[in-house]
Automatic annotation (TrEMBL):
Taxonomic lineage from the root: Bacteria, Bacillati, Bacillota, Bacilli, Bacillales
Record's protein name: Carboxypeptidase
Keywords recorded for this protein, A-Z: Carboxypeptidase, Hydrolase, Metal-binding, Metalloprotease, Protease, Signal, Zinc
Keyword Zinc: yes
Annotated Gene3D superfamilies: Zn peptidases
SMART domains in UniProt: Zn_pept
UniProt xrefs under InterPro entries: CARBOXYPEPT_ZN_1, Peptidase_M14
Domain of life: Bacteria
UniProt GO molecular function: carboxypeptidase activity
Organism encoding this protein: Solibacillus faecavium
Recorded family membership: Belongs to the peptidase M14 family.
Signal peptide range in chain numbering: 1-24
Cofactor: Zn(2+)
Domain Peptidase M14: residue ranges: 99-391
């Protein structure tokens, strides 16, 4: 009995010190306000809940997917609920980047494609936010090498989520169709280098900034915000800036108090969202890291010791694609306690922070900027992954 208790205690402590990611493909997903039009890959059958065939669907026919149950897609057939095998259909369009993407939509779409394309995607829950929203990473591709991209560290910067979700939807479709995106052969690249995406690091802050429902009392949030205008909110729901949470020169940041921006917290990695990203970086073997922020159309980067020339080349390449200005690496403008700094410190590999869109001030980037933002960034992840093939 004593040995059993000791072994149980060891497992418990190990779980605390090294928490495991969990597979995030769930058994039931209600797509709700975010149905997805799908197209039959071949002649398929729609069945009722008992498995009885109620309709045959021809190859190429379009259906509206309203949910997922037990890894089956749910569609409406007349007034009846019908089920189909998700691997028998393709999505037509995963997301519309020209519209606001909520946490609920992002989560449901990630779960959907992980079930539609299990051999090409790997969805993981890497942690949870303060209010219990799941933090997801999704790996796209079959390559053994990996690069890492994330978005929406800051609540109001949610257009960066649109960028990553459009990348996921566009790249996956090109891979399946065997087509190129500009000069990039997507299937060849993703067969050698997988891209790990974390589309929304700060779902609580994003939800608040978008005017969605949160659990934290509004009086407390208004006090931290100094206003009822939450469109400007950057922090997580505790009023901590997640990109001031990493243990790189953290002590140099002036201690303030919980706010809509720039509060570093009482110590590094106190916030679950920052801790989830730290653990993802720590246990991963990503060859490069790009963190998407907004706004300003500039690129910050850090000085990797062993791979400085490689980093410089990669940053110049992203700048050439986007047209964004490269900021010089100086003590004055180098980010402090940011995720990019942490990656460079612990991995000694290329990392950069990409600020999209013209400067928007204390607000989210207007949706009217979307078309140009997407045009500028469409191939960035493919470029980075393609460069990593050579390393």
């Amino acid at each position: 009995m004593r040995k059993i208790l000791l072994f149980s205690l060891i497992l418990f402590v190990a779980a605390i010190i090294h928490p495991m990611t969990t597979n995030a493909a769930t058994e039931k997903v209600d797509l709700g306000k975010y149905p997805v039009q799908v197209i039959a890959k071949k002649n398929i059958e729609l069945k009722d809940k008992n498995g009885t065939v109620i309709k045959k669907v021809a190859k190429g026919e379009k259906l509206l997917l309203t949910g997922i149950h037990d890894k089956q897609g749910i569609v409406k057939n007349s007034s009846k609920t019908a089920f189909l095998t998700l691997t028998d259909v393709h999505y037509d369009q995963l997301v519309d980047g020209s519209k606001v993407l909520t946490f609920d939509e992002v989560a449901s779409k990630l779960k959907l494609i992980s079930l539609m394309y299990p051999s090409l995607t790997n969805l993981q829950e890497i942690g949870q936010s303060v209010e219990g929203r799941s933090l997801y990473s999704i790996k796209l591709g079959t390559g053994k090498k990996e690069v890492l991209f994330d978005a929406a560290f800051h609540g109001r910067e949610h257009m960066t989520t649109n960028v990553l979700m459009e990348m996921i939807g566009t790249y996956l479709k090109a891979y399946l169709n065997g087509t190129k995106i500009e000069k990039y052969d997507v299937k060849t690249i993703l067969s050698e280098v997988s891209i790990v995406f974390v589309p929304m690091v700060n779902p609580d802050g994003v939800t608040l900034s978008q005017g969605g429902k949160v659990k934290t009392p509004m009086a407390k949030l208004r006090a931290m915000n100094g206003s009822s205008n939450f469109n400007r909110w950057k922090a997580n729901i505790n009023g901590v800036d997640l990109n001031r949470q990493f243990n790189v020169k953290w002590q140099l940041i002036k201690m303030t108090k919980p706010s809509y921006k720039e509060y570093k917290g009482k110590a590094p990695n106190t916030e679950p969202e920052a801790l989830a990203m730290k653990r993802l970086i720590d246990r991963g073997n990503h060859l490069a890291y790009v963190s998407y922020h907004s706004s300003g159309q500039i690129i910050y980067w850090s000085r990797a010791k062993s791979h400085f020339e490689r980093t410089k080349k990669l940053v110049k390449g992203v700048s050439s694609i986007t047209g964004y200005k490269i900021m010089p690496v100086t003590t004055k403008n180098e980010p402090i306690a940011a995720s990019e700094d942490y990656f460079t410190k612990v991995k000694d590999r290329p990392a950069m922070t990409v600020e999209i869109a013209p400067y928007a001030g204390e607000a989210s980037v207007p949706l009217k900027r979307w078309n140009n933002v997407w045009k500028q960034n469409k191939t960035v992840a493919l470029y980075v992954a393609n460069e990593a093939r050579k390393w």
